[in-house]
Amino acid sequence: MPIQNLKISSRLILLSAVLILGSIALGVTGLITLNKSNNLMVLALNQASDVEHAVDTARKAQVNFKIQVEEWKNILLRGRDAEVFTKYKEACLPLAYFAGSRRPCPRYVASRIVCLSQSC
């Protein structure tokens, strides 16, 4: 039965049904695309957060290493007197093993240092 043989009211109902089905299909496609876009945005935000955390940890490690070097220099340059040696050694000890590092930085080394001065 060709569409030309239908009444105008039937044609309008058929046209309306096609338009409604097309709108529903377009809406569902839009929702699926929006969901995919949202998932990608969440993933990008998580990655950005991970990068920010890594940068913060690296900056803290860099600052801590600088402080460790300064304290180590203090031990080497100013640690001839027993009191001063103990002071700088104690300042150096809490700085080791920063951010889960398993390398014995100044803590291991400084705990095995002995004062080379005659007064120790």
- The helix count comes to 3
The residue fraction in helices comes out at: over 70%
Give me the count of strands: 0
What composes the largest sheet?
A: none
Unreliable stretches (pLDDT < 50, length at least 5) are 104-108, 115-120
- SSE sequence, one letter per element: HHH
| SSE-based structural type | mainly alpha
Percentage of residues in DSSP E strands: under 5%
Overall shape: rod-shaped
Overall structural domain count = 1
> From the alpha-carbon coordinates, what is the Rg to the nearest angstrom?
36 Å
Distance separating the two termini: 112 Å
Q: Average pLDDT value?
A: 80
Care to describe what's here?
The protein is mainly α. The chain has one domain. It is built from three helices and no strands. Helix 1 packs antiparallel against helix 2. The radius of gyration is 36 Å and the shape is rod-shaped. The C terminus is likely disordered.
